[in-house]
Amino acid sequence: MGSSLTTGQVKGMNPARPVKHIPIMPVATPAQYRAMLDAAQKGGYAYPAINVTSLPTINGALKAFADAKSDGIIQVSTGGGEFASGTSVKDMALGAIVLAEATHRLAERYNVLVALHTDHCHPNKVEKFLKPLLAATAERRAAGRGNLFNSHMFDGSELPLDENMKISTELLKECAELDIILEVEAGVVGGEEDGHDTSGVPADKLYTTPEDMVTVYEALNGIGRFMFAATFGNVHGSYKPGAVKLKPTILRDGQKAVTDKHGAAAEMDLVFHGGSGTPLEEIRETLGYGVIKMNIDTDTQYAFTRPIAEHMFKNYDGVLKIDGEIGDKKLYDPRGYLKKGEAGLATRLQQACDDLLSTGKSICGSI
Ligand SMILES: [Zn+2]
Protein backbone atom coordinates (compact mmCIF):
# COMPACT_ATOMS: atom_id res chain seq x y z
CA MET A 1 0.00 0.00 0.00
CA GLY A 2 1.18 3.48 -0.72
CA SER A 3 4.04 2.49 -3.04
CA SER A 4 3.31 2.92 -6.70
CA LEU A 5 4.90 0.39 -9.02
CA THR A 6 5.53 1.17 -12.64
CA THR A 7 4.52 -1.39 -15.23
CA GLY A 8 6.81 -4.42 -15.27
CA GLN A 9 8.46 -3.48 -12.00
CA VAL A 10 8.39 -6.12 -9.31
CA LYS A 11 7.76 -5.00 -5.75
CA GLY A 12 10.91 -5.28 -3.63
CA MET A 13 13.26 -5.21 -6.61
CA ASN A 14 15.41 -2.30 -7.59
CA PRO A 15 14.62 -1.66 -11.26
CA ALA A 16 18.06 -0.09 -11.78
CA ARG A 17 19.73 -3.42 -11.16
CA PRO A 18 19.59 -6.31 -13.58
CA VAL A 19 17.52 -9.26 -12.45
CA LYS A 20 19.70 -11.95 -10.84
CA HIS A 21 21.16 -14.05 -13.63
CA ILE A 22 19.67 -17.51 -13.87
CA PRO A 23 21.65 -19.74 -16.26
CA ILE A 24 19.48 -20.94 -19.12
CA MET A 25 20.59 -24.35 -20.31
CA PRO A 26 17.86 -26.08 -22.19
CA VAL A 27 17.85 -29.68 -23.35
CA ALA A 28 20.91 -30.49 -25.50
CA THR A 29 20.82 -29.40 -29.13
CA PRO A 30 21.49 -32.11 -31.74
CA ALA A 31 25.12 -30.93 -31.98
CA GLN A 32 25.51 -30.93 -28.20
CA TYR A 33 24.03 -34.43 -27.99
CA ARG A 34 26.48 -35.73 -30.60
CA ALA A 35 29.29 -34.10 -28.63
CA MET A 36 28.02 -35.76 -25.43
CA LEU A 37 28.09 -39.20 -27.04
CA ASP A 38 31.51 -38.57 -28.61
CA ALA A 39 32.92 -37.39 -25.27
CA ALA A 40 31.64 -40.53 -23.53
CA GLN A 41 32.99 -42.83 -26.24
CA LYS A 42 36.38 -41.11 -26.15
CA GLY A 43 36.47 -40.79 -22.38
CA GLY A 44 35.43 -44.36 -21.54
CA TYR A 45 32.25 -43.44 -19.66
CA ALA A 46 28.51 -43.73 -20.21
CA TYR A 47 25.36 -41.76 -19.44
CA PRO A 48 22.62 -43.08 -17.21
CA ALA A 49 19.36 -42.99 -19.19
CA ILE A 50 16.58 -42.83 -16.65
CA ASN A 51 12.93 -43.57 -17.36
CA VAL A 52 10.59 -40.83 -16.16
CA THR A 53 6.81 -40.92 -15.81
CA SER A 54 5.90 -37.76 -13.85
CA LEU A 55 7.11 -34.36 -12.67
CA PRO A 56 8.66 -35.74 -9.44
CA THR A 57 10.70 -38.26 -11.45
CA ILE A 58 11.84 -35.58 -13.93
CA ASN A 59 12.79 -33.24 -11.08
CA GLY A 60 14.64 -36.01 -9.25
CA ALA A 61 16.56 -36.88 -12.43
CA LEU A 62 17.55 -33.25 -13.09
CA LYS A 63 18.65 -32.80 -9.48
CA ALA A 64 20.80 -35.94 -9.62
CA PHE A 65 22.55 -34.98 -12.86
CA ALA A 66 23.16 -31.44 -11.62
CA ASP A 67 24.45 -32.60 -8.21
CA ALA A 68 26.74 -35.11 -9.94
CA LYS A 69 27.85 -32.47 -12.50
CA SER A 70 27.05 -35.14 -15.06
CA ASP A 71 25.20 -34.76 -18.33
CA GLY A 72 22.52 -37.39 -18.77
CA ILE A 73 19.62 -38.84 -20.68
CA ILE A 74 15.98 -38.67 -19.66
CA GLN A 75 13.74 -41.15 -21.42
CA VAL A 76 10.08 -42.06 -21.75
CA SER A 77 8.71 -45.51 -22.49
CA THR A 78 5.44 -46.26 -24.28
CA GLY A 79 3.92 -47.26 -20.94
CA GLY A 80 5.36 -44.17 -19.23
CA GLY A 81 3.83 -41.97 -21.92
CA GLU A 82 0.47 -43.67 -21.60
CA PHE A 83 0.57 -43.25 -17.81
CA ALA A 84 1.49 -39.56 -18.07
CA SER A 85 -1.47 -38.83 -20.36
CA GLY A 86 -3.90 -39.88 -17.61
CA THR A 87 -5.92 -43.01 -17.04
CA SER A 88 -8.88 -41.80 -19.09
CA VAL A 89 -6.90 -40.59 -22.13
CA LYS A 90 -4.20 -43.30 -22.35
CA ASP A 91 -2.39 -41.74 -25.33
CA MET A 92 1.27 -42.81 -25.16
CA ALA A 93 2.49 -40.20 -27.63
CA LEU A 94 0.61 -37.36 -25.93
CA GLY A 95 2.01 -38.30 -22.51
CA ALA A 96 5.54 -38.50 -23.91
CA ILE A 97 5.15 -35.06 -25.49
CA VAL A 98 3.92 -33.59 -22.20
CA LEU A 99 6.85 -35.11 -20.25
CA ALA A 100 9.33 -33.90 -22.88
CA GLU A 101 7.93 -30.36 -22.92
CA ALA A 102 8.04 -30.24 -19.13
CA THR A 103 11.65 -31.41 -19.21
CA HIS A 104 12.57 -28.70 -21.74
CA ARG A 105 11.20 -26.03 -19.38
CA LEU A 106 12.59 -27.46 -16.14
CA ALA A 107 16.04 -28.27 -17.56
CA GLU A 108 16.56 -24.55 -18.25
CA ARG A 109 17.24 -24.08 -14.53
CA TYR A 110 20.16 -26.51 -14.36
CA ASN A 111 23.69 -26.22 -15.62
CA VAL A 112 24.19 -29.69 -17.06
CA LEU A 113 23.06 -31.00 -20.43
CA VAL A 114 20.22 -33.47 -20.63
CA ALA A 115 19.06 -35.26 -23.74
CA LEU A 116 15.53 -36.57 -24.28
CA HIS A 117 15.04 -40.09 -25.60
CA THR A 118 12.23 -42.60 -25.97
CA ASP A 119 12.67 -46.21 -24.87
CA HIS A 120 11.66 -49.51 -26.57
CA CYS A 121 9.15 -48.97 -29.36
CA HIS A 122 8.12 -52.35 -30.74
CA PRO A 123 6.95 -52.64 -34.37
CA ASN A 124 3.25 -52.61 -33.45
CA LYS A 125 3.64 -49.26 -31.67
CA VAL A 126 5.52 -47.32 -34.37
CA GLU A 127 2.35 -45.73 -35.75
CA LYS A 128 0.93 -44.63 -32.42
CA PHE A 129 4.17 -43.67 -30.65
CA LEU A 130 7.22 -43.04 -32.82
CA LYS A 131 5.47 -41.44 -35.80
CA PRO A 132 3.51 -38.84 -33.79
CA LEU A 133 6.70 -37.98 -31.86
CA LEU A 134 8.66 -37.49 -35.08
CA ALA A 135 5.78 -35.33 -36.35
CA ALA A 136 5.92 -33.27 -33.14
CA THR A 137 9.61 -32.55 -33.73
CA ALA A 138 8.96 -31.73 -37.41
CA GLU A 139 6.27 -29.25 -36.33
CA ARG A 140 8.61 -27.58 -33.84
CA ARG A 141 11.36 -27.29 -36.46
CA ALA A 142 8.92 -25.76 -38.95
CA ALA A 143 8.10 -23.15 -36.31
CA GLY A 144 11.79 -22.37 -35.79
CA ARG A 145 12.04 -24.24 -32.49
CA GLY A 146 14.43 -27.00 -31.44
CA ASN A 147 13.74 -30.75 -31.55
CA LEU A 148 11.36 -32.26 -29.02
CA PHE A 149 13.43 -35.43 -28.58
CA ASN A 150 17.13 -36.01 -29.26
CA SER A 151 16.80 -39.71 -29.98
CA HIS A 152 14.28 -42.53 -30.21
CA MET A 153 14.55 -46.29 -29.94
CA PHE A 154 13.03 -48.70 -32.40
CA ASP A 155 13.10 -52.22 -31.01
CA GLY A 156 12.59 -54.70 -33.83
CA SER A 157 14.42 -57.47 -32.00
CA GLU A 158 11.34 -59.71 -32.09
CA LEU A 159 11.58 -59.78 -35.92
CA PRO A 160 14.04 -61.71 -38.09
CA LEU A 161 17.17 -59.54 -38.39
CA ASP A 162 16.65 -58.63 -42.07
CA GLU A 163 13.10 -57.39 -41.39
CA ASN A 164 14.30 -55.58 -38.28
CA MET A 165 17.02 -53.81 -40.30
CA LYS A 166 14.59 -52.97 -43.14
CA ILE A 167 12.32 -51.05 -40.77
CA SER A 168 15.29 -49.65 -38.79
CA THR A 169 16.77 -48.30 -42.04
CA GLU A 170 13.55 -46.53 -43.01
CA LEU A 171 13.15 -45.02 -39.57
CA LEU A 172 16.80 -43.95 -39.42
CA LYS A 173 16.33 -42.06 -42.70
CA GLU A 174 13.35 -40.22 -41.21
CA CYS A 175 15.24 -39.50 -38.00
CA ALA A 176 18.37 -38.29 -39.81
CA GLU A 177 16.33 -35.71 -41.74
CA LEU A 178 15.27 -34.28 -38.37
CA ASP A 179 18.76 -34.50 -36.80
CA ILE A 180 17.53 -37.22 -34.45
CA ILE A 181 19.59 -40.27 -33.44
CA LEU A 182 17.96 -43.72 -33.62
CA GLU A 183 18.67 -46.53 -31.18
CA VAL A 184 18.10 -50.03 -32.55
CA GLU A 185 18.23 -53.48 -30.99
CA ALA A 186 19.19 -56.92 -32.23
CA GLY A 187 19.10 -59.93 -29.96
CA VAL A 188 16.57 -59.99 -27.16
CA VAL A 189 16.69 -58.49 -23.67
CA GLY A 190 15.13 -61.04 -21.35
CA GLY A 191 12.57 -60.56 -18.60
CA GLU A 192 9.58 -58.26 -18.50
CA GLU A 193 9.38 -54.49 -18.82
CA ASP A 194 6.49 -52.23 -19.53
CA GLY A 195 4.22 -55.20 -20.27
CA HIS A 196 6.59 -56.67 -22.88
CA ASP A 197 7.48 -60.16 -21.69
CA THR A 198 10.33 -62.15 -23.25
CA SER A 199 10.82 -64.65 -20.45
CA GLY A 200 10.02 -67.59 -22.80
CA VAL A 201 12.70 -66.69 -25.36
CA PRO A 202 15.43 -69.36 -25.82
CA ALA A 203 18.68 -68.53 -23.99
CA ASP A 204 20.85 -68.25 -27.14
CA LYS A 205 18.66 -65.37 -28.42
CA LEU A 206 19.78 -63.35 -25.40
CA TYR A 207 23.25 -62.96 -26.94
CA THR A 208 23.90 -60.91 -30.09
CA THR A 209 26.45 -62.63 -32.36
CA PRO A 210 29.46 -60.84 -33.93
CA GLU A 211 27.88 -61.57 -37.34
CA ASP A 212 24.68 -59.80 -36.24
CA MET A 213 26.72 -56.80 -35.11
CA VAL A 214 28.41 -56.59 -38.51
CA THR A 215 25.01 -56.90 -40.24
CA VAL A 216 23.59 -54.05 -38.16
CA TYR A 217 26.58 -51.82 -38.88
CA GLU A 218 26.47 -52.51 -42.61
CA ALA A 219 22.72 -51.93 -42.78
CA LEU A 220 22.76 -48.57 -40.97
CA ASN A 221 26.18 -47.04 -41.57
CA GLY A 222 26.06 -43.90 -43.68
CA ILE A 223 22.31 -43.31 -43.32
CA GLY A 224 22.38 -41.41 -40.04
CA ARG A 225 23.73 -41.61 -36.54
CA PHE A 226 22.55 -44.59 -34.52
CA MET A 227 23.10 -46.33 -31.20
CA PHE A 228 22.93 -50.08 -30.87
CA ALA A 229 21.48 -52.12 -28.01
CA ALA A 230 23.37 -55.36 -28.53
CA THR A 231 22.39 -57.99 -26.00
CA PHE A 232 24.81 -59.95 -23.87
CA GLY A 233 22.52 -61.83 -21.51
CA ASN A 234 20.78 -58.71 -20.19
CA VAL A 235 17.47 -59.09 -18.43
CA HIS A 236 14.94 -56.38 -17.55
CA GLY A 237 13.86 -56.31 -13.93
CA SER A 238 15.55 -57.18 -10.67
CA TYR A 239 17.09 -60.54 -9.88
CA LYS A 240 19.00 -62.10 -7.03
CA PRO A 241 22.78 -62.13 -7.49
CA GLY A 242 23.91 -64.96 -9.79
CA ALA A 243 20.56 -65.35 -11.59
CA VAL A 244 21.68 -63.37 -14.63
CA LYS A 245 24.71 -64.49 -16.64
CA LEU A 246 26.09 -61.46 -18.41
CA LYS A 247 28.80 -61.91 -21.01
CA PRO A 248 30.18 -58.41 -21.65
CA THR A 249 32.89 -59.91 -23.88
CA ILE A 250 30.15 -60.39 -26.49
CA LEU A 251 30.31 -56.61 -26.99
CA ARG A 252 34.10 -56.67 -27.30
CA ASP A 253 33.98 -59.50 -29.85
CA GLY A 254 31.20 -57.84 -31.85
CA GLN A 255 33.00 -54.47 -31.97
CA LYS A 256 36.18 -56.28 -33.05
CA ALA A 257 34.35 -58.06 -35.89
CA VAL A 258 33.02 -54.68 -37.09
CA THR A 259 36.30 -52.75 -36.78
CA ASP A 260 38.37 -55.59 -38.29
CA LYS A 261 36.22 -55.37 -41.39
CA HIS A 262 35.50 -51.63 -41.56
CA GLY A 263 38.29 -49.88 -39.65
CA ALA A 264 38.62 -48.30 -36.21
CA ALA A 265 36.17 -45.47 -36.98
CA ALA A 266 33.40 -48.07 -37.28
CA GLU A 267 33.28 -48.60 -33.51
CA MET A 268 29.63 -48.39 -32.53
CA ASP A 269 27.89 -46.50 -29.72
CA LEU A 270 26.42 -49.30 -27.61
CA VAL A 271 23.54 -49.21 -25.14
CA PHE A 272 23.29 -51.38 -22.02
CA HIS A 273 19.73 -52.48 -21.18
CA GLY A 274 18.62 -54.49 -18.17
CA GLY A 275 21.53 -53.47 -15.98
CA SER A 276 19.75 -53.54 -12.60
CA GLY A 277 21.73 -55.52 -10.05
CA THR A 278 24.80 -55.83 -12.31
CA PRO A 279 28.07 -55.99 -10.32
CA LEU A 280 30.10 -52.80 -10.67
CA GLU A 281 33.06 -54.55 -12.31
CA GLU A 282 30.82 -55.86 -15.11
CA ILE A 283 29.31 -52.40 -15.65
CA ARG A 284 32.80 -50.91 -15.86
CA GLU A 285 33.95 -53.67 -18.21
CA THR A 286 31.26 -52.70 -20.75
CA LEU A 287 32.51 -49.09 -20.78
CA GLY A 288 35.73 -50.32 -22.35
CA TYR A 289 33.75 -51.99 -25.13
CA GLY A 290 31.92 -48.88 -26.34
CA VAL A 291 28.85 -48.65 -24.07
CA ILE A 292 27.90 -44.95 -23.86
CA LYS A 293 24.35 -45.23 -22.47
CA MET A 294 23.01 -47.46 -19.76
CA ASN A 295 19.30 -47.58 -19.08
CA ILE A 296 18.16 -47.35 -15.49
CA ASP A 297 14.59 -47.96 -14.48
CA THR A 298 14.03 -50.83 -12.03
CA ASP A 299 16.60 -49.55 -9.50
CA THR A 300 15.29 -45.98 -9.55
CA GLN A 301 11.68 -47.22 -9.35
CA TYR A 302 12.60 -48.96 -6.10
CA ALA A 303 14.60 -45.97 -4.87
CA PHE A 304 11.54 -43.76 -5.41
CA THR A 305 9.12 -46.11 -3.65
CA ARG A 306 11.33 -47.13 -0.71
CA PRO A 307 11.16 -43.84 1.26
CA ILE A 308 7.46 -43.53 0.47
CA ALA A 309 6.85 -46.98 1.99
CA GLU A 310 8.79 -45.85 5.06
CA HIS A 311 6.68 -42.71 5.28
CA MET A 312 3.46 -44.75 5.16
CA PHE A 313 4.57 -47.38 7.67
CA LYS A 314 6.05 -44.89 10.13
CA ASN A 315 3.07 -42.56 9.94
CA TYR A 316 0.37 -45.16 9.66
CA ASP A 317 -2.10 -43.40 11.94
CA GLY A 318 -1.42 -40.01 10.32
CA VAL A 319 -1.83 -40.94 6.67
CA LEU A 320 -4.98 -42.91 7.48
CA LYS A 321 -8.12 -41.98 9.36
CA ILE A 322 -8.30 -44.72 11.96
CA ASP A 323 -10.84 -45.46 14.68
CA GLY A 324 -12.85 -42.29 14.09
CA GLU A 325 -9.72 -40.07 14.13
CA ILE A 326 -9.02 -37.49 11.40
CA GLY A 327 -5.45 -38.38 10.36
CA ASP A 328 -2.84 -35.67 9.81
CA LYS A 329 -3.18 -33.49 6.73
CA LYS A 330 0.58 -32.79 6.74
CA LEU A 331 1.27 -36.51 6.48
CA TYR A 332 -1.23 -37.45 3.81
CA ASP A 333 -0.56 -34.44 1.56
CA PRO A 334 1.01 -36.24 -1.47
CA ARG A 335 3.69 -33.54 -1.78
CA GLY A 336 5.22 -34.64 1.51
CA TYR A 337 5.92 -38.22 0.47
CA LEU A 338 6.48 -37.56 -3.26
CA LYS A 339 9.34 -35.24 -2.27
CA LYS A 340 10.87 -38.15 -0.38
CA GLY A 341 10.48 -40.34 -3.46
CA GLU A 342 12.11 -37.67 -5.61
CA ALA A 343 15.06 -37.47 -3.21
CA GLY A 344 15.41 -41.27 -3.09
CA LEU A 345 15.47 -41.47 -6.88
CA ALA A 346 18.02 -38.64 -7.09
CA THR A 347 20.39 -40.37 -4.67
CA ARG A 348 20.22 -43.65 -6.62
CA LEU A 349 20.72 -41.88 -9.95
CA GLN A 350 23.76 -40.06 -8.62
CA GLN A 351 25.18 -43.46 -7.75
CA ALA A 352 24.55 -44.53 -11.35
CA CYS A 353 26.58 -41.51 -12.52
CA ASP A 354 29.44 -42.66 -10.27
CA ASP A 355 29.15 -46.26 -11.51
CA LEU A 356 29.22 -45.14 -15.15
CA LEU A 357 32.03 -42.61 -14.52
CA SER A 358 30.00 -39.68 -15.87
CA THR A 359 30.21 -37.77 -12.56
CA GLY A 360 32.02 -34.44 -12.91
CA LYS A 361 32.30 -34.74 -16.70
CA SER A 362 29.53 -32.39 -17.86
CA ILE A 363 30.47 -30.66 -21.11
CA CYS A 364 27.81 -28.00 -20.52
CA GLY A 365 29.26 -24.60 -21.34
CA SER A 366 32.11 -26.01 -23.39
CA ILE A 367 30.05 -26.68 -26.50
ZN1 LIG B 1 15.43 -52.01 -22.30
List the helices and strands and how they pair.
Blueprint: H1 30-43, E1 47-51, H2 55-68, E2 72-76, H3 78-84, H4 92-107, E3 114-118, H5 126-142, E4 151-154, H6 161-177, E5 181-186, E6 190-193, E7 196-197, H7 210-220, E8 226-230, E9 235-236, H8 249-262, E10 270-272, H9 280-287, E11 291-296, H10 298-314, H11 316-319, H12 329-332, H13 334-355
Parallel strand pairs: 1-2, 1-11, 2-3, 3-4, 4-5, 5-8, 6-9, 10-11
Antiparallel strand pairs: 6-7
Helix pairs in contact: 2-4, 2-13, 3-4, 4-5, 6-7, 7-8, 10-13
Give a brief description.
With 367 residues, the chain is α/β, with parallel strands linked by helices. 45% of the residues lie in helices and 13% in strands. The strands form two sheets. The protein has an eight-stranded parallel β-sheet with strand order 8-5-4-3-2-1-11-10. The protein has a three-stranded mixed β-sheet with strand order 7-6-9, with no helix packed on it.
Low-confidence stretches: 1-15
Query: What percentage of the residues does DSSP assign to strands (E)?
Result: 5-15%
Cα-atom radius of gyration? 22 Å
Continuous helix count: 13
Widest sheet: strand ordering = 8-5-4-3-2-1-11-10
Helicity, in percent?
40-55%
Ligand inventory reads: zinc ion
Most strands sheet: 8 strands, parallel
Q: Tell me how many strands there are.
A: 11
Order of helices and strands: HEHEHHEHEHEEEHEEHEHEHHHH
First and last CA, distance: 48 Å
Q: Quickly give the structural class.
A: alpha/beta
What is the residue-mean pLDDT, rounded to a whole number?
91
**3D shape:** globular
